Amino acid sequence: MEKRVKFDFEIYFTNGGGIKGEDFRLDILGENISDKELADYIVDDLRLLMVGETKILNKEILNEPHKRKPINAKVEIETFVDLSHTIEHGLVTYKGLPAPIVCDYFSRENSKKIYEEGTQFQIGKIEMVTNTGTYIDCPFHRYENGKDLSEIQLDCFTDLDAIVISIPYSKTLEITAEYLKNYEIRNKAVLIHTGWDRHWNTDNYYENHPYLTECAANYLKVCGVKLVGIDSHNIDNTTGNSRPVHTILLGAEILIVEHLCNLNLLPQEGFTFSAIPPKFKGVGTFPVRAMAKLKN
C-alpha cells in the first residue's frame, strides 16, 4: 500500500530567525522515513541556506495514494568500496623491508595519571617504511628530481574517472599491451584486476605475481592515462633488477598504486577512484586509503 508522511517542522538559521510548517504531507517509499531525511528534503526543496538546528515533530505515517514521486525515491545513490588492505603491527608488504611497528606512545593507562577520572586518551606511535600496505608511487620514488607527494596536485589522485580491466592471473602473469586494447582509457585511472589479492599476507603473495610489461607501460603512456593501479605485489616483474614500468609511468608523471584489493566488487566503468596520501615533502611513496565511488 502506498504511504504518505504527515509532520510538522521547525528550522532555525545560524544567522538568526527560523521557519515553521504544520501538517505537511509528502509521499514516501516504504513503511517509514527518518527525521533527518525529512529535514534534508525540506532544506533542499526550499533551497534554504545557513541552516542550523532542525526539528521534525508529530510525524505520522498514513496509508494514502501517492500524488507525486516519493521523496526518498533516489535516482542515484553513491556507494563507496574500500580498495585498501589493512595495515597492522608486523605486516609484511614486501619481503626484505621491515614490517611496521604500531604501538602506544602515550597509553590510556598513563593518561589516567594526568586527566580527571573517566577521561582517557591514546596517542599512537607508528614506525614503518613508506612501501607498506596499499600505497601510491609518485615520480620522486624513481627520479631524484621528480615530484614528491607534496608537489602532486589533488586532482591527480582524487575522484578520477576510472575503469577496471580484468586479466585473471590464472590466464596470464605477463600483462602485455594486447590485454589493454579496445578500452576507453584516456585521462582515466586504469585499475588492473588480476585477483592476486586473494594471496595477500601469505607466502604465495611475494613470488610469481602478475605484472605489466614494458610494452604495456608504453601503451598506457601514449594513451594518456592518469593513474595505473594493480592488485598485485608489484606492477613490475620482480624476478630481475630492471623496473621498466615504474620508469616509464613515473617518468611521464603517471601515478602508480600497488597492492589494491576488492577490485572484483567494482563494475568495469561508472565509478571514480581516489587514493589520497598525506602531503609529505621528500617522500615518493606512502600508504593510501584507496577507494571507489560508485553511482547506482
Write the layout of secondary structure elements.
Layout: E1 3-13, E2 18-28, H1 35-45, E3 51-63, E4 78-82, E5 101-106, H2 108-111, E6 123-127, E7 135-137, E8 160-166, E9 174-175, E10 189-193, E11 211-212, H3 214-222, E12 227-230, H4 244-251, E13 255-258, E14 271-276, E15 285-287, E16 289-295
Parallel strand pairs: 8-10, 9-11, 10-12, 12-13
Antiparallel strand pairs: 1-2, 1-3, 4-16, 5-6, 7-13, 7-15, 8-14, 14-16
How would you concisely characterize the structure shown here?
This protein has four helices and 16 strands. The strands form four sheets. The chain has a nine-stranded mixed sheet, with helices on one face. The protein has a three-stranded antiparallel sheet with strand order 2-1-3, covered by helices on one side.
